[in-house]
Amino acid sequence: MRLFYVIIFLIVGLTSVLAFPGKQQRIIGGSITSIDRYPFAASLLFSWNLQQYMQSCGGTIITNRAVLSAGHCFYGDSAARWRIRVGSSWANSGGAVHNTAQIIIHPNFDYEHFDSDIAILRTATPFVYNNQVRAASIAGINYNLADNQAVWALGWGLTAVNGTASEQLRHVQIWSINQSICKSRYNELGERITENMLYC
């Protein structure tokens, strides 16, 4: 069960998870699910004008004051431009919305290559835990994901190629690929995969 949650928290937070080699490929589709099944999922809301906030990235609750996500979502943004919705299956309604107090992007984040693409958002107010809001379980440092293991990706992403983003939380089962094979496939495309990336 711990493995399940570590994979989910990484995938929820990373909006550019790639299932197969190729630039800009993403996991698309999936089936509708409920926040009751994934109470650690957070919809991260962005505003250009500091008045209207819309879902722009996904994240994973890791404590009652912190959400883990992808660094590229917040690169160059102030905390005031982001809010955190928890406890809702819907991207832009329901649940509870919290102001973001601080964005901490990994100090080695490389925007061009997405190396160390990870960030933590700290909330201004604590989350209230219940059946729809809970921190994810995180596997220990010595846990290794086996090859060809089924894992779940979830979020409010595209429902079809050239389609629109889903308003309702979706999930899809995918399988892990051997890291050496993954690196080799991306190297053939001129892409560099490091140990600080989740691509396969």
TrEMBL record:
Signal sequence residues: 1-19
Predominant location category: secreted
Protein biosynthesis is among the record's keywords: no
Record-level Gene Ontology MF annotations: serine-type endopeptidase activity; toxin activity
Alphabetical list of InterPro entries matching this protein: Peptidase_S1, Peptidase_S1_PA, Peptidase_S1_PA_chymotrypsin, Trypsin_dom, TRYPSIN_HIS
GO cellular component: extracellular region
Source domain of life: Eukaryota
Protein's cellular compartments: Secreted, Extracellular space
Keyword annotations of the record: Disulfide bond, Fibrinolytic toxin, Hemostasis impairing toxin, Hydrolase, Protease, Serine protease, Signal, Toxin
One biological process term in Gene Ontology: proteolysis
Residue ranges of domain Peptidase S1 in the record: 27-200
Described purpose of this protein according to its UniProt entry: Fibrinolytic activity; shows preferential cleavage of Arg-Gly bonds in all three fibrinogen chains. Contact with the caterpillars causes severe bleeding, due the anticoagulant effect of the protein.
Protein known as: Trypsin CFT-1
